[in-house]
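Not sure how to ask, but would you mind making up any protein sequence you like and the tokens describing how it folds?
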Amino acid sequence: MSKGSVYSKIKPYLSSLSDKFSSFFKKIRNSRFVKTVFVWKIWRPILINVGLAIILYVGLFFMLKHHLTKITNHGEKIKLPNFVGKKMNLVKKDVVALGLRPQITDSIYDSIKPNGTVLVQFPLPTAKTSVSVKSGRVISFRVSTKNKFVEVPNLINKTARYALRLLTSRGLTYQIIKKPVSQNLAGFIFKQEFNGKKVIEGTKVRVGAKIILYKGEAVLVQKEIPFPDFYGKTINQVKAELNMLGIKDYIIGCSDCEETKPNYPRNNINDFPKSGYKARVFSTKPSYYEGLTIPKTRQVQINAKIDVIINDQHLNNQDENIDQFETLPNDSL
């Protein structure tokens, strides 16, 4: 069968299929959806905005590229010389002349090199690293010094003995100031200062600098004892009772007692050989009142007199206790 005869047979079918596709696409093209979406009035603002966004992006890209190139000095190369061993005052001038910024980051004690000699630089010289720098770069230097510095240790909550040993080992001097604290903090360092300011661990100071240490000291609470009523009692009785109570600091004064010594006031009953058992107390300091207590270390002043008028009722209340205080023999008075 020839090709012509085959084509002639399928031609009607192809023609029919083509007509069907044309009719289908015509219906789609004439549909309301397609006519609405592809209207130019709708797409025109969208296309305009997209175009402006593309132009803005491209403009910003080239602007930033140019600006960053200028900021980072793209393509600029400065060879960094070797400054080690030179005086820092001369190095500063050379660094500034190259368009760089010098900065001293540390001082190192060196007893041989002159003061202010460059010992370390960063970045390293270009001759060693083959790396160049750009203008405005900070060049750091560590220079020599004749003043030796040490770091202050942390002495808070350390015992005073340990703190002093640690400061001495670092060549630092100290001064201890005691301050009252609670019992559990007594004996420990609670504050450290240098030049009147709080100093923390790691702060560098010159060797020989004085560190002020504040040491906690417990507040001693003195036990108080009841203060007796001495009114109407003799000097001998008062002296014996004071000794019994453990009160050592007292003064006994008697203006009309027979004296063997010219000193006044006196606190020895032997100063009143004949009057120690005659003169009676008429006032005390502190003044007695019921419930009065005093520490043993407080000073007590007793005033007695031979011709003092004593309240009989008050004296009778004391008679039952008089004998127990007259413990010294009469020949010793």
